[in-house]
């Protein structure tokens, strides 16, 4: 029998080994994490993107923003309280959850806590048998929204506030909320401590040390035990899982690091911009109200934020590596006012309009560097629709570009990028350029004044710039803490949005908002339902481009059901571009929609002026 020579075996082994090693070399290693990374809870929370605040308490009946703590319990008797209506409004406004003021600073409890008499159980509402927290938690569950609680640490009603006994009371209340109402996604502790209050009749000023008084460590331990999935927002003491962004105006810094230091002082710039060198993952949550106040006031019904303001808020929160916590106050009858709900629904509708068509999906991608030339890290990973794949460069490459080729002239004005933050936030500086007329032209973020470039990306960055038509777009990472990991790129054409209407004649509604849902669809949103009798259109006066020759006019009061009012042609409008009047049967509506069925020329409708004639 022939025996294999040992040398043959050795040669064979070496050959096999080098074959194996050769194929391994094709597989680049997954990048190592860079700095602090988010927890699973923080990742889940960040993916919620938008969720609602609901401010509703005694203040709703006293027309105050902060109650003193001695408000009469008899005041709480809503005629029509309907938590399902709140949840439906929030859901249609695109909110994925609700944080409810279970107890605001006045100390009044919206649930029948067994530790105090100052709650719904001693009010005329439902003969003291009601529980708003329960009704809301149940309604959220039914509609598939997440639920969370705001429990004010400051309590202007409680006699023991400022002494150790109150801290036990506070924890007892928190335990009730965290045990009896199902899953809680976030626990919100406001930092306000105005000092003075009723305090069981003492009527005095009490000062506490926000860092030591509440003994947060023990409270946090209890939260982790009772609701391990929840994230903690804490503005008053120990560092929670999330941070305030330093303003209630609805924007976080253009540069926004999801990092802070665990210990030490937190200054305003750290809240607003995060801390590049921070040792802990503490992302920012942007909180703001849909109207000026947090609580409902009749006088603010005409001051609900406009659609363009809400979109601006969206870009400056969700579009800047933050989440948006948008407040809807409840009116004294126990419902969200129609002005707030319709604006909220329009807001969500607009977000969908802007982001419904990702122009990057049909493009091709190339990059100046791909990690180990491994296709797992190829440029095209940014548009494969999978959140867990990403374009990555070699470890030492922190300056690299990715080019998106549309193959044909493509018109856009929004750019979205997302980092794979599971492995840390990395990008420090980047630029965007569009290939127009044979050269690369820089694109600037038009929501940032005087900025000298684009900085952080994080969970999601949205850049808004004037509409451009280009065949290619280039993202260049100029500086990064480590090799950049980009998991998504999206490119969109947002409808134009203006909040002002040009001067018009006679019976013009005083607060009219006009915007374009698409290049051939004009929307006019009145603040309230009106009886409308006719609509007038003045074509563009400088050129025939955009002149509507054939139209359809629609009316709606809820953005869903549209009634056709009229359709037809504007005769001789090109030769004689004068005011055109569309008359119809008087109709009650809140929104008018003008479809340009045909244009004289151009591909975008235009107008010199419009006018709505109301009854
Ligand atoms: C503030 C509170 O004082 C306001 O009343 C409101 O609850 C807001 C969300 O936080 O600091």
Topology (SSEs and partners):
Blueprint: H1 6-25, H2 40-48, E1 50-55, H3 59-62, H4 83-92, E2 97-103, H5 132-143, E3 146-151, H6 164-180, E4 186-189, E5 196-197, E6 204-205, H7 216-226, E7 231-234, E8 243-244, E9 259-260, H8 268-273, E10 280-281, E11 284-289, H9 307-315, E12 323-329, H10 338-355, E13 364-367, E14 391-392, E15 400-419, E16 427-436, E17 439-442, E18 461-480, E19 485-492, E20 512-518, E21 521-538, E22 548-556, E23 563-569, E24 580-599, E25 609-614
Parallel strand pairs: 1-2, 1-12, 2-3, 3-4, 4-7, 8-11, 11-12
Antiparallel strand pairs: 5-6, 9-10, 13-15, 14-19, 15-18, 15-19, 16-17, 16-18, 20-21, 21-24, 21-25, 22-23, 22-24
Helix pairs in contact: 4-5, 6-7
The chain binds beta-L-fucopyranose.
Beta-L-fucopyranose (FUL) binds at residues 65-66, 190, 192, 287, 294.
């Amino acid at each position: 029998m022939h025996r294999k020579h040992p040398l043959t075996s050795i040669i064979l082994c070496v050959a096999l080994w080098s074959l194996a090693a050769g194929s391994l070399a094709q597989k680049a290693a997954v990048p190592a994490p860079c700095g602090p990374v988010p927890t699973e809870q923080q990742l889940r929370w960040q993916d919620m993107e938008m969720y609602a605040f609901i401010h509703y308490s005694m203040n709703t009946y006293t027309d105050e923003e902060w109650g003193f703590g001695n408000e009469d319990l008899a005041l709480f008797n809503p005629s029509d309280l309907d938590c399902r209506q709140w949840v439906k409004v929030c859901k249609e406004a695109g909110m994925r959850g609700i944080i409810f003021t279970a107890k605001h600073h006045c100390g009044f409890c919206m649930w029948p806590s067994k530790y105090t008499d100052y709650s719904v159980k001693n009010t005329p509402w439902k003969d003291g048998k009601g529980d708003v927290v329960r009704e809301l938690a149940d309604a959220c569950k039914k509609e598939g929204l997440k639920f969370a609680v705001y429990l004010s640490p400051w309590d202007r009603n409680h006699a023991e506030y400022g002494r150790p006994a109150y801290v036990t009371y506070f924890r007892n209340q928190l335990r009730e909320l965290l045990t009896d109402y199902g899953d809680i996604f976030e626990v919100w502790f406001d930092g306000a401590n105005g000092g003075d209050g009723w305090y069981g009749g003492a009527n005095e000023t009490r000062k506490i040390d926000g860092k030591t008084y509440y003994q947060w460590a023990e409270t946090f331990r209890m939260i982790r035990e009772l609701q391990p999935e929840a994230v903690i927002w804490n503005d008053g003491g120990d560092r929670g899982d999330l941070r305030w962004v330093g303003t209630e105006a609805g924007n976080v810094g253009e540069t926004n690091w999801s990092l802070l230091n665990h210990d030490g002082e937190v200054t305003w710039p750290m809240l607003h911009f995060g801390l590049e060198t921070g040792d802990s993952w503490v992302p920012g949550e942007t909180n703001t109200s849909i109207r000026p106040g947090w609580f409902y006031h009749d006088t603010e019904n005409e001051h609900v934020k406009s659609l363009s303001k809400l979109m601006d808020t969206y870009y400056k929160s969700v579009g800047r590596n933050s989440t948006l916590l948008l407040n809807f106050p409840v009116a004294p009858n126990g419902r969200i006012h129609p002005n707030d709900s319709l604006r909220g629904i329009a807001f969500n509708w607009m977000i969908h309009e802007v982001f419904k068509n990702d122009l990057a999906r049909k493009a091709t991608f190339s990059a100046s560097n791909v990690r180990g030339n491994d296709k797992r890290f190829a440029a095209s990973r940014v548009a494969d629709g999978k959140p867990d794949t990403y374009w990555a460069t070699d470890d030492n490459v922190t300056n690299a570009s990715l080019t998106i080729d549309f193959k044909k002239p493509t018109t856009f004005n929004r750019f979205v990028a997302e980092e794979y933050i599971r492995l840390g936030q990395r990008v420090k500086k980047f630029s965007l350029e569009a290939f127009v007329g044979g050269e690369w032209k820089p694109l600037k973020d038009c929501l940032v004044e005087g900025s000298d470039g684009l900085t952080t990306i994080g969970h999601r960055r949205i850049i808004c710039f004037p509409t451009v038509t280009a065949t290619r777009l280039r993202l260049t990472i100029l500086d990064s803490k480590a090799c950049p990991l980009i998991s998504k790129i999206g490119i969109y054409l947002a409808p134009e949005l203006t909040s002002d209407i040009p001067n018009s004649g006679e019976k013009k509604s005083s607060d009219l908002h006009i915007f374009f849902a698409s290049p051939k669809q004009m929307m006019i949103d009145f603040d309230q339902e009106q009886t409308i009798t006719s609509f007038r259109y003045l074509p563009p006066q400088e050129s025939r481009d955009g002149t509507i020759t054939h139209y359809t006019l629609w009316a709606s009061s809820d953005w869903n059901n549209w009634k056709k009012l009229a359709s037809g042609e504007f005769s001789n409008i090109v030769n004689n571009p004068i005011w055109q009047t569309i008359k119809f049967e008087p109709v009650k509506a809140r929104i008018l929609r003008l479809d340009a069925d045909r244009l004289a020329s151009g591909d975008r409708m235009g107008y010199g002026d419009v006018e709505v004639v109301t009854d």
